[in-house]
Design brief:
- With 288 residues, the protein is α/β, with parallel strands linked by helices.
- The chain contains 9 helices and 8 strands.
- The chain is globular.
- About 6% of the residues have low confidence.
């Protein structure tokens, strides 16, 4: 996930593009608002709202968006380290237009309501983000997952007879795995985009939870994350193969950690769109 290595890679990437440090901040602050995806030919009209979800630890501010009519598979989105913000709402809306009822959460709700930081410059925002990231752990992930999935199941726009999907970015990647393992009867598909800490040497490593899952998976791995830990993808493949679960595990060439959200400094449009298409294919298969 975001750390000094990925922050340094980001700076080097932007230097290669000949952007100044001031321009770095402008890119990260404004790209999400400026981004406009063409609507799919079959895009559904959607309804969106800012809502509060009660959890065992407090009240989480979230964004909920779903097709304007009917009941649809639920999807739970775990943001990256920068948290709930306009770009994540945009991404949730885009997914809802494809026929899903989508909840994107503020994972830091115990400490602070969104927005969390001003820019997508991790080095500049580390003093705020690192302590917030440190308040979360495997136990908080599972408690939150149960509460958020429970919220979705209570909504009339969610078809509780169909399994849900969960997707996460950066630090959200491992949270999807804990969600899938804690709620195997509900989570039928999971997707991790430039997820960090998926395979560790700790006893609570997410990859050790694969035998408890029933979810089909997509792991879209950043090129520089793979260079830093090339064995992680192999461990993931072995774990899913042993469990007999489908998993698409791919390194996205030329894409740096954080490349998927349109407001990040390393947004890679072509690879982000390819990852999005693979997400839609996964959900169509696994949540049908």
């Amino acid at each position: 996930m975001c750390d000094e290595r990925t922050a340094a890679d980001t700076v080097e990437h932007l230097r290669a593009k000949k952007l100044t440090r001031r321009e770095f901040g402008a890119v990260s602050a404004g790209a999400g608002l400026a981004m406009f995806w063409p609507r799919a030919a079959n895009a559904q009209d959607v309804t969106a709202s800012e809502i509060d979800v009660t959890t065992p630890d407090g009240v989480a501010d979230c964004h909920f968006v779903h097709p304007a009519s009917g009941a649809h598979p639920g999807v739970l989105i775990w943001p990256d380290a920068f948290g709930l913000r306009p770009a994540k709402r945009q991404m949730a809306r885009r997914l809802a237009e494809s026929g899903y009822s989508v909840l994107v959460v503020n994972q830091y709700y115990r400490s602070q309501r969104a927005p969390i930081v001003e820019t997508r410059n991790f080095a500049a925002e580390a003093a705020t983000l690192r302590p917030l990231m440190g308040t979360l752990n495997a136990d908080t992930h599972v408690r939150d997952a149960r509460a958020f999935v429970g919220f979705l199941d209570d909504q009339s726009s969610v078809d509780s007879n169909r399994k849900m999907g969960t997707m996460g970015y950066c630090m959200g990647g491992p949270i999807t795995m804990r969600t899938a393992a804690a709620l195997p009867d509900r989570i039928g598909a999971g997707a991790s985009f430039h997820g960090g800490g998926l395979v560790t040497d700790r006893p609570d490593s997410p990859h050790l939870l694969v035998p408890q899952m029933t979810a089909h998976y997509l792991f879209a791995i950043a090129d520089n994350d793979d260079q830093a830990d090339p064995e992680a993808k192999n461990v993931l493949r072995e774990a899913f193969d042993a469990a007999g679960l489908p998993a698409e595990i791919e390194v996205y060439e030329g894409a740096l950690h954080g490349w998927c959200p349109p407001d990040t400094q390393v947004y890679h449009e072509a690879q982000a769109e390819r990852a999005w298409s693979r997400l839609l294919a996964l959900f169509e298969r696994a949540l049908a």
